[in-house]
Amino acid sequence: MGKNNINFFAKIVLHRYFVETLNRKAVQNVKQAFRSQSTKSTGKETCSTSLRLLGFSCGTGLILGKQFYSGNHAYCEAKLKSRIVEDDQTKQLKFDWSRFWQLLKPHWWYLIIAVSSAFVVAILNIEIPRLLGSLINVVSNHMDVDAENTVGAYWQELKVPAIRLGIMYLAQAAFTFVYINSLSCVGERMACQLREDLFSSIIHQDIAFFDNHRTGELVNRLTTDVQDFKSSFKLCVSQGLRSVTQTIGCMVSMYLISPPLTMYMATIVPAVIGVGSLLGRFLRSQSQAAQAQVAKSTAVCDEALSNIRTVRAFAMEEKEMELYAAELEKAKVMQEKLGMGIGLYQSGTNLFLNGIVLGIVGLGGSLLSSGQIKPGDLMAFLVATQTIQRSLAQLSLLFGHYVRGISAGSRIFEYSNVKPSIPLNGGKIIPFHSLFGQVEFKNIDFTYPTRQDQKVLKNFSLTLPAGKVVALVGSSGGGKSTVAALLERFYDVDSGIITIDGIDIKNLDPTWLRGRAIGFINQEPILFATSIIENIRYGKPSSTDLEVMEAARMANADEFIRSFPNGYATRVGERGVTISGGQKQRIAIARALLKNPSILILDEATSALDAESEKLVQDALDKVAAGRTVLIVAHRLSTIQNADTIAVVSNGAIAEVGTHKSLVDKRGLYWNLIRQQQQNHSSETHGA
Ligand SMILES: Nc1ncnc2c1ncn2[C@@H]1O[C@H](COP(=O)(O)OP(=O)(O)OP(=O)(O)O)[C@@H](O)[C@H]1O
């Protein structure tokens, strides 16, 4: 074989597989790494050489470093403005591998298909360069000889490897389809299950859990974290497996082609792996902190949007915007820091790999010139090196995804594994015909879980006789609403006992207690963004339209509902914003009434209404209260006129119990308290 041929093939090999493809891929990889870390692209130009790639990485590092510094500055300022309590972002969460395997188990078959197909693709990717090398050898064998005599022989010789190569390309396409498709099935099913599990766990949590966690943050775990986890899982299985197999396979086939060249390569690879594992721990904690901050910024935005009327009423749009921007800024800084870490890692990896390439070209060229290897072999070797380079670049990218996926998974499992202290089901049910509704609070001590140092109820005792109306009055913050929340078993008492017909409510089925035995109407009833009829039916999903309308009639709601053009089908908007407070309250009464509860809690049910609405609602409540045990948490004198008993709560205990008349006669304490309440109420009203 002539020297010209060697040069010719050396040129093809170098140009086609290194200068063009390899560097283009490398630059794409770097860009993709930055994109996947949601950072701004700092350079639009495409570098075409390894040195420029290095420059790109270093330049990006410097720019990011600058941004990091200025971002930190913004972080300090933003801290002053934030209304959000800082979370403990240093908390290290553990990834629950046993939960992960449980989640994967039902989709095992899909995973096996995906993994085996990805494996076949990887093997094909190893085989293809070898076959390509034999093709090149056939071509080079026929280059120096007289063309006329060899055309037939050339095609004859080329036919078999060419057909084999074609078949391999087809198989590669088919298996690629299979693994992507089956992996997508596993990923989507797992993500769906994760969301279901997480939502189920969240919705079953104690009320105290919600006192402590913001909705936006919870929603973020259900959306962004699950999404991150799913994509990382898919990428790690498909590309990870492929890249590892290809790296190992190519090493073997390279060794078969040329042991000296392979030994040279083998000395470099462990160094890359070593650096990777060192960076791992650091990047993982960075990723968790960044994700927590993203969740926090979502929570700010969620809170502002769900309270848009308050924001508008106080002209706080700009402030909210500032607050959101400050939280976003912190998230951006953290993400950029993470991006910088991953970028540094990847640029370092690329530097190593490009070094290998240069070495191979030098060493391979000398082996070629001394006839120790053929041009096709050198090409096969270089293509295999390129495959390894791409695989390792993929692995370094995947490393970022792995870090991200593991921390997203840890955040998801953190909440899916929390067990509520008050289960939703289980316990006794008192049959309807034997339920009288006598309620007793005996020596209750209570502290809210989120505020352990403030005792809200102290040795609180009270009896609600069956079928009677008891009103709680007292100073603001005295603990009246807390009594109602304890009867609903939103929280468990620290000591003492609450009974219904003599049975401790801890032994009653909480779903029955809240769903059937007790009706709860509070100051700000929340409706769902659906039709009025469906909102009322929420009280008892099995009720017929007629039952719903009957409940609405009793709650003085039927008339105004029918006056709407769409009647019962009228949609009420988010949280019921499209109807008035009084109308909302009457729909809520109808909703509570539908379950025909034996005990009714009215927690300041009319205190947010004007006089006219209050009269309509009060009238509805009086009708509804008849024959039931009623606990009224009262703010206004008008709401307690019909109460059989009035209990004055002061400082977490009962200060006085009597009838309206006896307390009026006593004046003193009672009137002081009522006056104080009225003052509180009017100052709240004026303040708003
Ligand atoms: N979820 C909670 N977590 C922690 N503390 C709470 C919680 N809810 C209420 N508190 C505190 O418990 C105390 C009693 O509150 P509660 O709402 O029972 O008073 P109230 O008598 O109903 O007041 P008002 O008449 O003003 O509505 C208050 O100091 C309040 O700040």
Short description:
The protein is of the alpha/beta class. The protein has helices at residues 3-36, 50-81, 97-104, 108-141, 147-203, 207-212, 215-257, 259-306, 308-313, 317-369, 375-416, 480-487, 510-517, 532-537, 545-554, 558-563, 581-594, 611-625, 660-666, 668-687; strands at 439-447, 455-464, 469-474, 495-500, 503-504, 518-522, 599-603, 629-633, 645-650, 653-658. Helix content is 66%, strand content 9%.
Question: Could you walk me through the main structural features you see in this protein, from its secondary elements to its overall organization?
Answer:
- The protein is of the alpha/beta class and 688 residues long.
- The protein folds into 2 domains: 384 residues, ABC transporter type 1, transmembrane domain (ABC transporter transmembrane region fold), CATH 1.20.1560.10; 186 residues, 3-Layer(aba) Sandwich (Rossmann fold).
- 66% of the residues lie in helices and 9% in strands.
- It is built from 20 helices and 10 strands.
- The strands form 2 sheets. A 6-stranded mixed beta sheet has the order 6-7-8-3-9-10, sandwiched between helices. A 4-stranded antiparallel beta sheet has the order 2-1-4-5, with helices on one face.
- Helix 17 packs parallel to helix 18.
- The longest helix has 57 residues.
- The N terminus and C terminus are likely disordered.
- The site of adenosine-5'-triphosphate has 13 residues, from helix 12.
